[in-house]
Amino acid sequence: MDLTTSLAAVVRERRWERDLTVRALADRTGVSRAMIAKVEAGEAQPTAALLGRLSGALGLSLSQLVARAEGDGRVSRRAEQPTWTDPTSGYVRRAVSPRAGGDLELVEVTMPPRAEAGFAADTYTFLRHRIWVLEGVLEFVEGTTVHRLEAGDCLELGPPVDCVYRNPDDGPVRYLVAVTRR
Question: Residue limits of the HTH cro/C1-type domain (predicted)?
Answer without folding.
Answer: 11-65
